Amino acid sequence: MKNIAKSVLAAAIAMGSWHGINAEVINLTTPGTSLVLDASVGQPLRILYYGEKVADDEIPALRSSALYYRDAYPVYGLYPQGEAALSVTHADGNRTTQVEITGVETKQEGDATVTTVAMRDKVYPFDVNVNYRVRPGYDVIETWVDITNNEKGAVTLNRFMSGYLPVRYGNVWLSSLYGTWANETNVTEEPLSHGVKMIKNKDGLRNSHTAHGEVMLSLDGKPQENTGRVIGAALCYPGNYKLFIDTDDSDTHHFYAGINEENSEYHLKKGETFTTPELALTYSHEGLSGASRNFHKWGRDNRLHAGDKERKILLNSWEGVYFNINEDVMAGMMEDIASMGGELFVMDDGWFGDKYPRNVDNSSLGDWVVDTRKLPHGINGLLDTAKKNGVAFGIWIEPEMANTTSELYEKHPEYIIKAPKRDVVKGRGGTQVVLDMSNPKVQDLVFEIVDTLMTKYPAIDYIKWDANAPVMEHGSQYLTADNQSHLYIDYHKGFVKTLDRIRAAHPHVTIQACASGGGRANWGVLPWFDEFWTSDNNDALQRIYMQWGTSYFFPAIAMASHISASPNHQTFRRIPTKFRADVAMSGRLGLEMQPKDMNDEDRAICAQAIADYKKIRPIVQFGDLYRLQSPFDKKGVASLMYVTPEKDDAVFFWWKTETFMNQQLPRIPMAGLDPDKKYKVTELNRIDNRPLPFEGKEFTGKFLMANGLDIPLTYRVDYHKNTDFSSRVLRLTEVK
Question: Range of 717's domain?
């Protein structure tokens, strides 16, 4: 408690004079970091330092260290050669802005401290307030900007970044995520060189397929998992974003992050305020994993909906039956998951449509009525079956979308996103279109879809919320002609407004963010969603890579990970059930298959995995992640572990990622344990005929972190059961 109280006190503004220098300093501190700003009234806000926590008595020397001292929120116009966080056209056409500090305010927002530095243009009544939020106990600082127009006419916002951070030039490496559908969140690592490195998204809805709005900067050369100084940045926004790093001829890498302004210039009316999304910043001297742990703890406790509640083990019907839903099949799947120890069954796409039944992907979106030809007893009949089997029930919807083959489209073609004078551009199935969430009537419609479902069937425990199309043409039938550039931004304003209403009415239902797989893995949607679908690709081997990258910024509790069928439906790879289970257990465990297609041995392995996962679920979902050996290093093995905050329990995951005869794999030292504690080793999901040599043995944390344990390359099973895959899950329990 003393440390937390000290952190809260230190997070407040420490303002005063600097030994004769006419300046005021803001020292924003977390338990392990400091952000120091020069907030002298009459001057632009300047950043002096960001990194390892510094004491107040060290601050007077910071300016003389010449580490930074740059504008904390650069604006465009005077000396326009460099990049800027803000660029506007004033009401009279002037494209220059020059701001100075008019005051600083600190207020409490729950447990958090919010510091606002108010700035105004020297000529125009145009205000720019830069905000910083510090939460006690978390090594994350959130920053965002409020831009207010008090001029006589509209001001056009040409660029409006959430934040800027200077990083000292040196051997700095960038870690970022990239990919595509079914191949999300690959990790790329590259040294920063002169020029501009740009990461952006223009999908409109699904912003984490091709890239991610989060990055890490390793300040000591090639990134390491558990050593080295790292700055992490995560933009908390569900729409189009732009992150870029400009390395110019100065001694600085200039990092900017915010909404992608391309084709989105915003016309700010007189008296109107534009608020940017938050940019979350963290720093760690414990490498990439240290930065990840900071994001995970902050996110679980402050951003993720119901981040303190354990997630259920589920069976999703999609890959088991696809659109071929009927009452008997659903009942059978519920019985099967219950018999294996699962807790939730989710009926996926294909349950709805009256005039246009949903049998394939080219019709019915928008017509959210039960197809009684498939489900004669309706949703209530399924809820009764679920209750009889002792499992909860969930359902799939795609409320932001419609098909042109639907009753909704026939009645309200004006609800869709469509450019004037153009033919409708259609997506999935040749008929899918996107509803215009900037339109209040569409917002009401989407709210009513969820509200009606939950009001009629309050026993529904889980909603899989999908979004399988991007914005396919730029045009709103609701927005005025002069505000068509507001489409991308106003869509998400409407989206968030609707989610607020849904959560106010139905706070307890679990909602998954799915968007053609992993298209909505971002902190911008997670305040209203409990988890995200990591990828439509359930191949366990590829999931190791995708889940590794996802874990850079997102905790296991939010990462849906399912045991799928073999051969895999995406890669057609044949992977044994044991390996598939060991991978899925490192996230939020679920199943995605038709259990009746499994033999008795595979069912038993799944049942054992479910039973073992229940034992380690608190460790995986709430523990501290230590990534050990990256699959992207191509060493033939990947490994990570989760450790409780008390360091009394841990789970170690090890997966062989390739197989060659007489191959040599590195021994993996563990991390995060208490060196002075002893830990008993127990293997989970064991299929070997005899236990591993260290089964039941005790080792000190010091030994395990210095040496690790030798993991055999193959299983000790009957000859005909051998495969080219191998994996291990070890539980390490403190010996008291």
Answer: 626-734
